[in-house]
Amino acid sequence: MDPQSKKSWAEIDLKALAANYQALVRRLQVPTEILAVVKANAYGHGAVPVARCLAGQGCRFFGVAQLSEALELRRGKLRGRILVLSHLDLKEIPLLFRYRLTPVLDRIEMVRAISREARRRGGGNFPIHLKVDTGMGRLGLIPAEIPRFLRDFRCLENLRMEGIMTHLSEATDPVFTRFQRQEFQKAVRLFLDAGYRPLYTHSSNSAAVILRRTGGDNLVRAGLALYGAYPEYRLAKSGLTLKPVLTWKTRIQQIKKIPPGYRVGYGKMFLNRSARAVAVLPMGYADGYLRSLSNRAEVLVRGQRAPVIGSVCMDLTMVEVGRIPLVKAGDEVTLLGRDGRGEIRAEEMAAWAGTIPYEIFTSISGRVPRVYSG
Asked: Is 39 a catalytic residue?
């Protein structure tokens, strides 16, 4: 694939991905393992290439949000354990068995249905993980519901309670995280007292790993940190260096001079008060360059920062390049990543857009080709 033929493209550095994985592994105590979260197309980085790279680094566990994502990995020849972390339909249950997928469950109706399917297939000990809600307020068993769940679960056959998990609301908040962990430990104790011995307990996310607040987990779910971004930018001072994996680029389509008094973009958002050189970039919010970056963001041209002016359009974005010498149509522009001494990180772009790095990555649309190296 020739990037020069594309309106914009994303370069994915698999060596940086591998380095981030190994840096996180060194943050953990043996025998704790990493479950790599590769949902949402590996946060926009490409699920199959990312998962294959991490498997080559020794990663054995992968997490997705829905069944279709798990099937993509299996069809991409990934052999590791795949946990489906979120919603499942009853009609999808046979595919769990066919593709050797592990569901994360919190409804006894779904557990019963999987037990029936296992019996229909001749029995066995099909592995499942259970989710406990300790303060996130989303999916999961409320701790008070666990005794009743256990009474119903005890009557079911052909299932193996392999793991129990919860989801931290804000791992950088030590007080609330301590509360959630205490609630989680109480929940796990209920299962232990009922005679169950799960192999894995997992609650920690990227922030918890970075801060070394993984509690008693022997499996941690790392997502954003794998891709080289910090869940909160202040975590960059934690002593853990993460390498950005994705660089997003485009090329200048046209350069034009506009006189004072001109307005730029829809809604007359930018008023030009002096003679300016404006570079028109052939990408916009349909490519995932958020409209909230209008009049706020910067890009890198010849290693120098150039401000976005006016509103980001569906397919075009304008930047002011009058202070950059020798700039011309066809020059490469870095939207996200490093160019020379200049760098724009996802955390910085997220701050401009009033959002989080997760949204920056996952918003990069499918019409932006991914080009892999390493």
From this structure: yes
